[in-house]
Amino acid sequence: MTDYTQQLDGLRQQISALDADLLALLARRQQLTNDVAETKIKAHLPVRDTAREEKLLIKLIKDGQKLGLTPQYVTSLFHVIIEDSVLNQQMLLAQRANPDSDRPLNRVAFLGDKGSYSYLATQKYFSRRPGELLEIGCKSFNEIIDKVESNEADYAVLPIENTSSGSINEVYDQLQHTSLSIVGELTHPVRHALLVGCDTDTKQIRTLYAHPQVFAQCSHFLAELGNVDVKPMDSTSAAMLKVSELNDPTVAAIGSAAGGELYGLTAIESNLANQKENHSRFIVVARKPVEVPLQIPAKTTLVMSTVQKPGALVEALVVLKDNDINMTKLESRPIHGNPWEEMFYIDVEGNLQDGPMQMALDQLKGMTRYLKVLGCYPTEEVSPTKVAAANALSE
After folding, report:
1. Is 395 annotated as belonging to a binding site?
2. Which of 163, 164, 219, 324 has its CA 20 to 30 A from that of 279?
3. Average pLDDT for 359-371
4. Which residues belong to any copy of the Prephenate dehydratase domain (predicted)?
5. Mean pLDDT score across all residues of the chain
6. Is position 107 annotated in a ligand binding site?
7. Angle at CA of residue 89, ends 84 and 93, nearest 5°
8. Does the structure show a pLDDT above 50 at 313?
9. 199 annotated among ligand-binding-site residues
10. Integer distance in angstroms from the first to the last C-alpha of the chain?
């Protein structure tokens, strides 16, 4: 062993020891934030105090600079830590408000099998929830809904929209006819990669397997490939399984690199989506609605049909504006059997227990032909703490 090798091993051992110390400190910090959540529950205080977060981050940036750490490094690191703290506190408050939702086993239905984006989203969402996870892979959105309605599953995780390919209309159509309630949401990054089962390269690929939504999100890449046979599959996991079974240098799947590893596939190209910042939003549905404490930022999803007269939709949306309610999503879907009539799905920032939300719903009931609340649920989109550059760098 050379002197350089011994020196390198010694440095790596010191780094590993520091990493272990960091993990212990992060776990201790997380426990303290849980204690903070318990105090906020008793005092009825909101989860976030953005003014304190900004003051804390400014101090950390200045202290980090004295230690030779860049503001960008400190900011990105503590954004992750603050986000984790906020989500953990929200989870604890939600648990206290819904004690019946705690169960030793969470049976969750999702599209595809292990390795699909819905599978990865399911793992992410329930990693913060107590109880073991029983995964129930399904071949269609209809089957997913049916699993929960028939009590074969407790929850369903459904993709609802993507930043590249837009809304997933089939899911909206399912929501129109189910009695299930939306109880949660999450946004999950989608990083498409070209996955192969054996030694090959992009030029040899003649057949591609993927979910239709994936093909839509990667249309520019497909155009560059040229003469390739596109084979739609029910799910990303089904596409990966197919390529794994064929073990052919001329076939490939498009999916996540992490999912591909579960099937023995290797990524030979990455970042295939038209939009490099590609995210999918998922909703979580259950048989019963949840109560969202007022301390937690909440979203409410409504479905409604308006009377058939000019400006009817505008009048309904003005109700939201007049009650200072921010609309984050508006989607229209045809009403089956009623040509040229639309059902409108609306996401708003607001809690059903809030006075403005209750007033808006009362007004909407009097001016729409049909109105239903599909769910009120905690939002898990934690906006980063904003720090003005002048404040962060001033002494």
Report:
1. no
2. 324
3. 93
4. 107-287
5. 90
6. no
7. 150
8. yes
9. no
10. 49
Of the ranges 51-55, 142-146, 245-249, 301-305, which one carries the lowest mean pLDDT score?
Answer: 51-55
CA dihedral 162, 113, 235, 143 (to 10 degrees): -90
148-178 confidence digits (pLDDT tens): 999 999 999 999 998 877 889 889 888 888 9
pTM beyond 0.85:
no
Domain assignment present for residue 198? The answer is yes
> And the tokens for 190?
């989608």
Residues 6+ apart with CB under 8 A from 23: none
Average pLDDT over residues 173-200: 92
Is 244 labelled as part of a ligand binding site? no
Find the mean pLDDT for residues 59-80.
93
Pairing of strands 279-286, 155-162: antiparallel
| Domain end among 98, 114, 148 | 98
Residues 32 and 70 in one domain: yes
Q: Is 40 annotated as a binding residue?
A: yes
| 201 labelled ligand-binding | no
Contact in structure between 373 and 345 (CB atoms under 8 Å): no
CA nearest 249: which of 231, 236, 268, 226? 268
Ligand-binding annotation for 28, yes or no, is: no
